[in-house]
Amino acid sequence: MLQTPDVDDPRRNELAAAATEAIAKNEPSAFFNIPGLFPPALVEDAAWRNRLNRELKAIRNAAEPG
Prior knowledge:
Elements: H1 12-25, H2 40-43, H3 46-63
């Protein structure tokens, strides 16, 4: 799991676990399950979640060497 010693948030362990899962699966869906991280209306909006997944995958792919 990622280490987040500088994050002063009571959800830091959940955030680190979600980040680890997001990296492993190449999608941020784990972040949607953390209470209060995103507004409920956005979490329930499948189009928004899909767009966020696409954008984050594009950023990750652009950052990968080669």
